[in-house]
Amino acid sequence: MFLHLLAAGVWVGGQIVVAGVVPGLRKSSGSEGTKSLANGFARVAWPAFGLALVTGIWSLLARDGQSSTAYSLTFGVKFLLYITAGAAAIAHARSSNRPVIAVTGALGLICSLIVLFLGTLLTHT
Ligand code: HEM
Question: Out of 20, 28, 86, 101, which residue is the most buried by the measure of CB atoms under 10 Å away?
Fold first, then answer.
C-alpha cells in the first residue's frame, strides 16, 4: 500500500504541479522549456502509473474474504477511470492540436483525481 500511495502521489500530484508550472515556464522558456518539462514528467509519471497497476493488483490478491457489491462496483468504476486517465494522457502527449491537448489534459487530471478519491473509498468499503 506504501508503494501504491507513492505511485498515486507521483501520478496525480505530478500532473497538478506540471499544470501549475507550465504557464510560467512557457513565458520564460517558450515551447523548448515546456517540451523538456513534459519529457521529464513522462519519464517519472509513466513508471508511477504502471506501479499503481502492479501494486493495486497486489492489494486485490492480498485481500481475504469476499468483496461486497459496493467494493466491486467502486473498484470497477475506479479501474475504468484509471484506463480512461491513461488513454487521455497518451492522447494529450501525442497531439499537436491545442484544443485537443487542453481537453485531454483536463480529462486525464479529472479522471485521475476521481481514481484517487475512489481509492480512499475502497479502503473503507
Ligand atoms: C494512478 C492510479 C491510482 C490511484 C491514484 C490510486 C489511488 C488509491 C488510493 C489513494 C487508495 C487508498 C489507500 C488508503 O486509503 O490507504 C487506493 C487503494 C486501492 N487501490 Fe488504487 N489507485 C490507482 C490505481 C489502481 C489500480 C490500477 C488498481 C488495481 C488494478 C488499484 C487497486 C486498489 C485497491 C485494491 C485498493 C484498496 C485495497 C483495500 O484497502 O481494500 N488502484 N488506491
Answer: 86
